[in-house]
């Protein structure tokens, strides 16, 4: 009998995003978003080739894709790692403390299934890998730092024991979770673990899915207070000398994009983390991705979580001549590193005039019946420091207006910067052969997955596929579009696309 403790509720089998695949070059129909990546790393440090990173892989909605099993508590349903897409992550006691951060999180199967029965192992990180990231704020000085707690497969030990971080005397921390599968459920290693960390993975009966949080609301409230007192200083987003102005008030102009820019978002913005782990392929053990560990684990493999943040920080920023917001990595000799929370702080400080906040038609915030859920959307937003739904921001990110702004802002941005983006590396070559075709295919997919056609819009992107199924060219219709009058101002349930089951919802960009 397992000794960890689940949250008070648990929804089984009601939500099935398109299944991820372990083979990045498999048919694009099978590629779902948020696929992780395994990259061989040589000893003595690494410069991983991340050209196959699945940060947003999906080619088209696939109603016939395999769906998640609904294993019983006994784990005897016959579900195997080939069909299961959900996992549990065991949160250690006192997760916000230094010792809690250094205690490995454990990945295991849902509903009593073992890692082997479920496929929930870090050796299967491409499909079902889990990733954890903490951002720490000194409440006296405003100094920020990052620490990536380690995730191990339940029943294994770390390849290298995690570094115990040295934390400020007065601090607040937030912990973000990312997942390369469909639904990741938090469970406590002790009865009080989840409460101790103020951890949430959704609302009653409705899990977020790939992402979850601990203490995000408190962290961002404190960050806001310190920023107002000028003790927390977040930099400007910077400007790019390479970005073409996409016309009028649309696009980012010369400003570097942040995670709330419509010119870089997809159907589920602000999801997943920038954490990386090392895998010892000989033993199946994981370790924190540090310079020291990379040099002492022969033939180590780099594990990553596909995320919007990694897309921006690792692929777009360098190409555009921009710099991500970074802070010292407490596990890696204070080397600068990024985090999901840092990206949200940067986006909040430099929020564009038309902000892309998490929309109510994002699949992660739909309720258990696939309907818009304002309370769940607001909970998700609060954990990332975003404003709750109200009449002022609904002008920008109601379901219909999110579609409209994505079309009217991102399409001209991509069209105006085709030459530059085409020189960039594709995060997923199975989805696009360069950064431009990847982003174009991602926008094309997001249009469909958000149900934008139900609001009277037409898809502004046409992609041409090569023999491998990846996008090799794209054309853009930059004609401004407007939501149908009967849907643009309706209630969330009216604005939500009708008749589209959750099983048909493909996630084109874990990032």
Structure write-up:
The protein is α+β, with helices and mostly antiparallel strands and 511 residues long. It has one domain. The protein has 15 helices and 20 strands. It has a five-stranded mixed sheet with strand order 1-9-3-4-7. Strand 14 (276-280) and strand 15 (285-288) form a beta hairpin. Helix 11 (399-416) packs antiparallel against helix 13 (435-449). The longest helix is centred in the C-terminal third of the chain and has 18 residues, at 399-416. The two termini are 36 Å apart.
**Main β-sheet: number of strands, strand sense, barrel status?**
5 strands, mixed
How would you describe the shape? globular
Total domains, how many? Answer: 1
What structural class do the secondary elements suggest? alpha+beta
Which stretches are low in confidence, meaning pLDDT under 50 for 5 or more residues running?
Answer: 1-79, 246-252, 488-509
Radius of gyration: 21 Å
Q: Helix content range of the residues, please?
A: 10-25%
In terms of DSSP E residues, the strand content is 15-25%
What is the number of E strands?
20
Span between termini: 36 Å
Helical element count?
A: 15
Largest beta sheet: strand ordering: 1-9-3-4-7
Mean pLDDT: 82
């Amino acid at each position: 009998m397992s000794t960890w403790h689940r949250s008070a509720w648990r929804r089984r089998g009601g939500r099935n995003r398109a299944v991820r695949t372990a083979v990045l070059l498999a048919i694009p129909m099978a590629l779902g978003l948020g696929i992780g990546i395994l990259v061989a790393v040589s000893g003595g440090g690494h410069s991983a080739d991340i050209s196959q990173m699945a940060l947003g892989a999906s080619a088209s909605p696939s109603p016939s894709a395999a769906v998640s099993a609904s294993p019983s508590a006994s784990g005897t349903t016959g579900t195997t790692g080939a069909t299961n897409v959900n996992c549990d992550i065991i949160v250690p006691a006192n997760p916000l403390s230094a010792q809690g951060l250094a205690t490995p999180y454990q990945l295991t199967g849902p509903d009593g299934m073992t890692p082997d029965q479920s496929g929930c192992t870090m050796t299967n990180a491409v499909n079902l890998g889990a990733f954890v990231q903490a951002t720490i704020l000194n409440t006296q000085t405003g100094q920020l730092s990052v620490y990536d707690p380690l995730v191990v497969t339940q029943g294994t030990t770390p390849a290298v024991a995690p570094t115990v971080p040295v934390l400020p005397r007065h601090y607040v921390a937030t912990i973000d979770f990312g997942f390369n599968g469909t639904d990741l459920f938090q469970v406590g290693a002790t009865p009080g673990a989840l409460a101790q960390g103020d951890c949430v993975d959704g609302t009653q009966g409705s899990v977020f899915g790939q992402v979850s949080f601990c203490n995000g609301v408190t962290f961002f409230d404190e960050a806001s207070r310190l920023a107002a007192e000028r003790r927390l200083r977040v930099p400007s987003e910077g400007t790019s000398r390479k970005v073409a102005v996409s016309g009028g008030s649309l696009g980012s102009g010369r400003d570097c994009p942040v995670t709330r820019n419509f010119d870089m978002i997809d159907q589920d913005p602000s999801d997943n983390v920038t954490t990386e782990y090392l895998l010892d392929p000989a033993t199946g053990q994981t370790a924190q991705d540090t310079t020291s560990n990379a040099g002492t684990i022969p033939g180590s493999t780099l594990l990553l979580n596909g995320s919007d943040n990694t897309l921006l920080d690792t692929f777009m920023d360098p190409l555009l001549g921009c710099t991500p917001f970074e802070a010292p990595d407490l596990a890696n000799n204070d080397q600068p590193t990024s985090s999901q929370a840092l990206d949200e702080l940067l986006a909040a400080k430099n929020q564009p005039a038309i902000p892309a906040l998490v929309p109510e038609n994002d699949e992660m915030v739909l309720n258990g019946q696939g309907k818009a859920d304002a309370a769940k959307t607001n909970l998700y937003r609060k954990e990332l420091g975003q404003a709750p739904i109200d009449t002022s921001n609904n002008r920008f990110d109601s379901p219909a207006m999110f579609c409209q702004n994505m079309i009217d802002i991102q399409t001209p941005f991509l069209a105006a910067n085709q030459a530059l983006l085409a020189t960039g590396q594709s995060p997923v070559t199975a989805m696009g052969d360069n950064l431009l075709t990847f982003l174009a295919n991602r926008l094309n997919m997001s249009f469909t997955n958000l149900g934008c056609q139900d609001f009277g819009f037409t898809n502004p992107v046409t992609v041409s596929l090569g023999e491998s199924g990846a996008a090799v060219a794209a054309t853009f219709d930059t004609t401004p579009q407007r939501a149908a009058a009967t849907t643009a101002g309706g209630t969330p349930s009216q604005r939500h696309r009708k008749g589209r089951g959750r099983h048909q919802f493909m996630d084109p960009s874990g990032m």
